[in-house]
Amino acid sequence: MSISKIKKAVALVALAVLASCGGGGGGGGTTEARVTGVADAQVLEGDTGTSTLRFVVSLDKAVGSGVHLTWSTVTTYKGGTGAATGGATCGAGVDYISVSNRDLLIAAGNTSAEIQVTVCGDTTFEPNETLAVKWSTVDNSGTALGTIVNDDAGGLNGTGVAGSYGRDSNPLTNDGTDGRLGFSFAQVASGACTRDKVTGLLWENKAGTGTHSPSGTYTYANLAAFVAAVNAENLCGFNDWRLPTPEELASLVDNGSGGVPAIDSTFFPNSQPSPYWTSTTTQDGLGTNAWFVDFLTGAVSWDNKTNAKAARLVSNGGSTAPAPLPTSCTDSTRFTNNGDGTISDKRTGLMWKQCAEGLSGTSCTTGAGGSFDWNAALARPAATNADANGSGLGYADWRLPTRAELSSITEREQCFNPAANQATFANAEPLGFWTSTPYAYNTSLAWAVDFMEGEVGPALKTGSGSSSKRVRLVRAGQ
């Protein structure tokens, strides 16, 4: 036999072998279906029992005789979220049931399938958390991301200024009828009160000419009688009404609307564009001043207690206990030092860089520090994220905090000069720090937080000495 005939015979045999294999068991020369991908998934966590993350498996055609896919769950991080914790069974601290090297058989005739991960419900506020599903077949592999969306009261209002973070950036928690971007309200008792579904707090509304008159004002000495009258009334079925803390009251400020007053007037009718008292006396040692929130613009400041201002009371409303106030400037119950240059906030789910930008080291004393105008502050996270294993401290999703986020770490109740937890945030500076929130009433301004006492107000973005401020970066959250 000639060499050319031998080559032709070998080729024919090879073709016959390939035809008999069928590309995965289909037989008859038909290749088996191929998994082309697994889609990301998300689910609301739920308060009790379990829910299911459903990852849709796509194939290029109907399965002939059967396709095997092997998959495992892996804890991971994604920008803007935390890491979900897996376990063998649901219980304290477990977010989902872990799976390792499980076989999924996709039966004949199917054009798609599902990978299902069991999610454990609870009533504890957490940021949205993620896990990964790693999968493989004989000829393909990949990773899909699962997000467990928090649905428990807690966290911060109004964090979704840019639409990238916060409740309204996610379709599972976005409701166009419950308030503007980042808020979620519901009227109670025919509008006598409003429930904040993010924080869980219940708020007094203003109407009429009596106890709840919109025009009522009080010196600080008169506030106790007002609180007693509302509790005696058992407003909306509760008798635990009190003055809110600065952070609680500031949680109602709508920074994005540019409206006057700076609050959702649909859910808080008859609100006045004026200052409202809070429960907190300033820590300057005088004892004569107290904090207020000005609903003309949303600024947080202080004034002498003898001056009359409006007041809006808050109730626990039978939902969650109020966040415990710090007992000292070195209180250790709220924050966790992760030992890697980051600080985790158990109250909000946020992770902070321990040091302001330009400083480093365990005591944040290495470096000269850095001051930025607003545009430079907005650009700073990109440089940090590009150096994830260096200045990024192992993360690549740092961002400039919103007004609500940065204000949340002030400690006005116990601290002064600086108004910050001095054990948690080493070398905390009593200086102004930028937020990412623009000032809706003047495009030349943006919100800043002054850590001398804890004031929150607008500042020029650029072009003057007042535009030079510090930066502290944040990640994770709702």
Automatic annotation (TrEMBL):
Region of interest: Disordered: 322-341
Polar residues: compositionally biased ranges: 327-341
Keyword Signal: yes
Source organism superkingdom: Bacteria
Sorted UniProt keywords: Signal
Lcl C-terminal domain span: 193-314, 341-475
Record keyword Metal-binding present: no
Xref: SUPFAM superfamilies: CalX-like
Pfam families: Lcl_C (PF07603)
Signal sequence extent: 1-19
Protein name (Swiss-Prot/TrEMBL): DUF1566 domain-containing protein
Protein source organism: Ramlibacter agri
Lineage start: Bacteria, Pseudomonadati, Pseudomonadota, Betaproteobacteria, Burkholderiales
